[in-house]
Amino acid sequence: MKNVIALLLILGLGGCDLLASAPRRACNRMVKLCELKVEDADSCTEELAKVERSLGKERVDKLATCVKESTGCAEAGGCMAGTGVEALGDQMGKFMKGLGRVLK
Description:
elongated, mainly alpha
């Protein structure tokens, strides 16, 4: 019986992060790696949720995976910056497409 309870606790604690949204997982990891305040995770999660709505779930999932695999704050920050640069490139491409249609 004790083994069953221990297993459920382990699965429950490990599964909490697995069940969390990608923005929450990324922010929780950033807080840990960068030694930020726990409260910072909430505002970070809200901001990344906005990013997810505009850029899509796939991109934020990719970000969360990158941050999860990071071994330090600078590396995790690189994941965040890389996502921003990638998104900027996409937006710039759309801008140029629209501009090109007008200038034809």
